[in-house]
Amino acid sequence: MKNRSLLFVLIAAIVTVSVIFTGCSSKAAHDNSSIAPQEGIMTEESESPGAAPAVPGASVPDRKLIVRLYMELRVDNIEKGIGDAEKMAASVGGYARESYQTEASGQLTLMIPAERVEEFTAGLKGLGKVINSNRKTEDVTDSYFDTQVRIKNLEAELETLRGLLQKPGWKVSEILEIEREIRRLTDELETLKGYLTNLDRRISYSEVRISFAQNQAVKDNESSDSLGYKLTLSLKEGTDFMIGTATAILSLAVFLLPVSPIIAILYFIFRKPLRRLKRKGKEAPKQ
User: Fold this and answer.
1) For residues 162 and 11, is the Cβ–Cβ distance under 8 A?
2) Do 230 and 201 share a domain, yes or no?
3) Pairing mode, if any, of strands 129-139 and 95-101?
4) Residue 234 clears pLDDT 80, i.e. is over it
5) How confident is the model at residue 250 (pLDDT cuts 50, 70, 90)?
6) Of the candidates 20, 22, 51, 84, which has an alpha carbon nearest to the alpha carbon of residue 212?
7) Are both 146 and 166 inside the same structural domain?
8) Residue 267 lies in a domain
9) Which structural domain, as residue segments, surrounds residue 175?
10) Beta carbons of 18 and 156 less than 8 angstroms apart
11) 105 in the same domain as 185
12) Confidence of residue 236 (pLDDT cuts 50, 70, 90)
C-alpha cells in the first residue's frame, strides 16, 4: 500500500512538472511572438550592421474568424436560381450543404472558401434582386490557440507516462493504473483535436445561406393563366355587374322619390282628358 501511494505521488509530480514546464514554454513563446519590439529600444540584432529592420506586428498570429452570411433573393425562376447558385459555388471551390424547394420559394446553404466569399456574394447579384443581406463574424482566435496549447500539454503528459512504462520494476497493478491514465488522456486529446479540426473547417469555409422567392410580376402572370384564376375573374365580373345594376336602380329610385307627388298630381289632372281623347278616337267613323 505504501509503495502504491509513493507511485501515485511520483506520477503526479512528474505530470505536474511536465505540464508546468510545457505551459510556461508555450505561453512564453506565444507572448514573445505577439509582442513587437517597442520603438526606441535597441536590441542586439538592431544594433548589428546590415540587420533588417523589424516590421511591427509581423509575428502576430492571424485572427481566426468564422463568417456566416444570410441573403434573400427575388428571382424569376426558383429552380434555375438554385441551380445557378450551386454552379457559382462550385466555380470558386465551394459546395452545397443542403437545399430545399417549393413552388414559390427555396432555401440553399453553401460552404464557400473564406478567401473567395466576397467574390461569390458579389456574383449572386446577377441572379436576381437582393432583398436582404446579413453578415455575422465570430472571433475564435483565443479559443483556437488555447486549444493548441492544451493539446501540446496533453501530448507531453502522454509522452511522460509512456516513458514511465518503459522502466522496469513496476507491479502489474501499477502498470494497469498508468495505462488507465494514458487512455483517459488519449480520449481527452482526441476530443480536443476534433474540436480544433471543426474550428479549422468553419474558419476555412464560410457558410452562405440563401433564401429564394419568386418575383411578383412572374407570379401574377402564372396565376392569370390558371383555370382557378379565370373562374375567379368571371365570378368577380358577374358580381360587379349585379352590384352595378342594383346601384343604378337604387339611384333611379332616389331620383324619383322627391318628384313622385308631382307626377301623381299630373296623373290625376290629365287622366280624364286622356280618357276622353281615347274614347273619341274609338268612336270616330271609319272613312
Assistant:
1) no
2) no
3) unpaired
4) no
5) confident
6) 84
7) yes
8) no
9) 1-32+64-215
10) yes
11) yes
12) confident
What cell was used for 198? 471543426
Helices (H), the chain: 2-34, 44-47, 78-91, 117-124, 141-165, 172-204, 216-224, 227-256, 260-283
Task: Judge if 76 and 101 occupy the same domain.
Answer: yes
Q: Which amino acid is at 204?
A: S
For residues 46 and 85, give the distance between their C-alpha atoms in angstroms, rounded to a whole number.
53
Contacts of 130 (CB under 8 A, 6+ apart): 71, 72, 73, 124
Cα–Cα distance for residue pair 84/106, rounded to 1 Å: 13
Domain membership of residue 270 (yes or no) is no
Total of domains in the chain: 2
Return left, alpha or beta for 12; rule: phi > 0 is left, psi -120 to 50 is alpha, else beta: alpha
**Can you give the pLDDT at residue 54?**
43
- Among 19-33, 121-135, 238-252, whose mean pLDDT is lowest? 19-33
Position with higher pLDDT, 88 vs 283: 88
Secondary structure element (H or E) that encloses residue 65, with its range = strand 65-75
- What is the amino acid identity at position 134? N
Lowest mean pLDDT among 64-73, 103-112, 259-268, 276-285: 276-285
What is the SS3 assignment for 241? helix
Cα–Cα dist 177/38, whole Å:
51
What residues contact 214, with CB distance under 8 A and at least 6 apart? 74, 75, 76, 77, 78, 104, 105
Establish if 111 belongs to a structural domain: yes
User: 210 and 233: one domain?
Assistant: no
What is each CA distance from 81 to 71, 109, 219, 239, in whole angstroms? 13, 13, 15, 40
pLDDT at 28 over 70: no
Whether residue 147 lies inside any domain: the answer is yes
